[in-house]
Amino acid sequence: MTLDVAWAVDWVRRSAQTVIEHRDELIELDRQIGDGDHGENMTRGFTAVVAKLDALEAPLADIGEVLKLVATTLMSTVGGAAGPLYGTAYLRAAKATGVPELDSQGVVALLEAALEGIVARGKATTGEKTMVDAWTPATEAAVAAADSGASPADVLSAAADAAHEGAEATIPLVATKGRASYLGERSAGHLDPGARSTELILRAAAQAAQ
Ligand code: ADP
Ligand code: MG
Ligand code: MG
């Protein structure tokens, strides 16, 4: 089993749907340790992505083209930290998926490239209470699943499960990157909004692959 451009389009549409559904939760999480705009930023970005997909005159040829459209749209419409971070993630992922269909190792390559993009852009490592704390265990779980022979859908499910655990594990952490770091010790006790949106996006990827 492999994933093709139809999966990528479905992933993007499901991402938009779940981000919109969780808009208020993401706003509330960001209100606790940031400036309360993460749900709005992500909703604006993914709404714009879907509008661009809907307006296409010809279908996009491959997964890389879909991810590139997401990257450029998020960069130009999402204000704040998350826009360039997710934008770079999708851009790197697009470059890593220059093949028509993804097998399990192709999915791993996509996730690894996205994580590398986020780290290159944000300079955060694990334990700093950012989206990196969801992306890193997700990528590790994907590697382990793919190496044990899991299908692309199961690789993505493992990644989404690990992103969930990683997001929950940000609660006790003290933020040392991004806006939440301004709170110092007072950032502990709250879940990082970007880690939650990462979990939502990876769950959407897994569901699109079912
Ligand atoms: P802003 O903080 O500019 O308002 P958002 O609220 O949209 O932007 O996004 C905040 C999220 O961005 C945080 O929850 C965190 O996950 C992520 N983030 C912020 N700075 C970094 C960084 N340097 N590296 C990785 N992720 C970061
Ligand atoms: Mg914010
Ligand atoms: Mg902001």
Automatic annotation (TrEMBL):
Gene3D superfamilies reported for this sequence: 1.25.40.340
Coiled-coil segments on the chain, per record: none
Signal peptide as annotated in the record: none
Protein name per Swiss-Prot or TrEMBL: Dihydroxyacetone kinase subunit L
GO molecular function per UniProt: glycerone kinase activity
Name of the gene encoding the protein in the UniProt record: dhaL
Gene Ontology CC terms, in alphabetical order: cytosol
Organism: Cellulomonas humilata
Source superkingdom: Bacteria
GO BP: glycerol catabolic process
Ranges for domain DhaL: 6-207
